[in-house]
Amino acid sequence: MRLFTPKITDVLVVIGLAGFVILYSLSAWKASNTPENMILILPVSAIALILCAIELIQQVLGKSQSVERGQPVKEVAPIMGLFTAYVLSLEWIGFDVATVLFVASFLLVQGERRWVWIVGYSICFGLVMSVFFAQMLPYPMPMSLLPTDY
After folding, report:
1. What is the rounded distance in angstroms from the CA atom of residue 115 to the CA atom of residue 107?
2. Is residue 129 assigned to a domain?
3. Are 100 and 90 in contact, with CB atoms under 8 Å apart?
4. pLDDT tens digits for 41-54?
5. Which of 40, 63, 64, 95 is most buried, judging by how many CB atoms fall within 10 Å of its CB?
6. Does residue 150 carry a pLDDT above 60?
7. pLDDT at 149
């Protein structure tokens, strides 16, 4: 006999995620409720909680879309490895270069083979994200190519 059915497990995961978002938001608010601290946390938290509420309602009403269970580790492991390498490399090679390399590597792992698309998209996305975060965050980011106070 199974203790948790897939539907109960899905509901528990969504409730756990919503709880984590609430605790993280309250902790950030308690640390500093200045606009500089909350400018990204509050909107992302609100969006995450809205999505959790929508998913819970769909689960309760039975209208939630079924998801393929048990994705093979061989499909997920390369992405997890790429993301780990990305996070660990931020300090050494800079946010701008690391983001461009991560996006290009991700596209390759996902099967994209058009080099113009890989290079163009990864450079555009990486540089736009780097400029956005450098301007929005109240602390300096490690960069290699873009100017920074880091």
Report:
1. 10
2. yes
3. no
4. 999 999 999 999 99
5. 95
6. no
7. 67
C-alpha closest to that of 39 among 131, 136, 133, 134:
136
Residue 1 domain-assigned?
Answer: no
Instruction: Please tell me whether residues 48 and 86 are part of one structural domain.
Output: no
For the chain, how many structural domains are there in total?
Answer: 2
Task: Decide if 98 contacts 127 (C-beta within 8 A).
Answer: no
Decide if 149 is inside a domain.
no
DSSP string, the chain: --SS-HHHHHHHHHHHHHHHHHHHHHHHHHH--SHHHHTTHHHHHHHHHHHHHHHHHHHHHT-PPP------HHHHHHHHHHHHHHHHHHHHH-HHHHHHHHHHHHHHHTT---HHHHHHHHHHHHHHHHHHHHHHSSS----SSS----
Domain hosting residue 120, numbered range: 73-136
Residues 41 and 82 in one domain: no
Structure tokens at 139: 């602390």
Instruction: Let me know: does 110 contact 102? Beta carbons within 8 Å.
Output: no
pLDDT tens per residue, range 60-101: 887 766 556 666 777 888 999 999 999 999 989 999 999 999
